[in-house]
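re: ur question from earlier - yeah i can do the single chain one, its not a big deal. heres the input i used so u can compare w yours
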Amino acid sequence: MRKTDNYRKHHDDLRGVVGRLEPMLTVSGISADPAAVAAVVRDLFGKFSVHLAIEDSTLYPKYAAHADPRLRQVALSFQTEMGNLSGLFDAYKRDWAGPLAIGRDPEGFIRATRDMLALLKARVKREEDGLYDLIDRAA
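and the output i got, formated as C-alpha cells:
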C-alpha cells in the first residue's frame, strides 16, 4: 500500500462526483430541476471540503517539514500556491448553497461551477503528477 492511496481514493471519489455534475450543467436541466443539481453539488461540497481540510492541515504541513529537500520544496510550493483554494471553495459554497440560489441564476451557477471544477481538476492533477509520487518514493 502506498502512503498516498487514501488521497488518491479521495481524488477518484471527486472525479466521480464531477462526472455526475458536468452533464447537468445546462440551463434547461438546471431550470427544470435545480434540486437534482443541488444534491450533486452538496456531495461535491462534502467530499471536497474534507479532502481540502485533510491536505491543507495535515499532508502539506507534514511534508513541508520532511527530511527530503525535494519533497519539502514541492510540499511548501503546493501549500503556498493552493492555499487560497479553500477560501474560493468556501465562497462558491456560500453563493450556491441550494436549489433556490442555483435555480435563480443557472447561467451564473454554470460559469462559477465550471471555474471551480477547473481549479479542482488542476489541483488533483498537480498533486498526482507532482507530489504524491514524491511522497510514495520517500516512504
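DSSP finds eight helices and no strands in the chain. not sure if urs matches, ping me
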